[in-house]
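The records we work with from here on pair a chain with its fold. Here is one such record, which you should read through line by line:
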Amino acid sequence: MNRKRLRILRSVFKTMGADKIIGAFILFFFAAALIIFLVDPQVKTYGDSLWYCFAAISTIGFVDVTVSTLIARIVTVVLSVYAIAVVAIFTAVITSYFMESA
């Protein structure tokens, strides 16, 4: 990718505010994993909690780690909905990038 295209992509990310949204999502992902690790007795390590969050947002649904408390389930739902929104925003940014570069 040449510099002009990278500048356009960066401009589209900043204009749409996607850089902040994706950054906030990454922070929320790690915070959600921490909350789940702290409140759910079935999640033994923070690494397991991160793995569970990854499985939840990617909709793979591995069942090697599950949650049992209401708070952990609510955090999982919020994280999953947030991930769907981020994917939609990322798709819009890429589409906008191709429209601007054309």
Notes: Residues 9 and 98 are 9 Å apart (CA to CA). DSSP finds four helices and no strands in the chain.
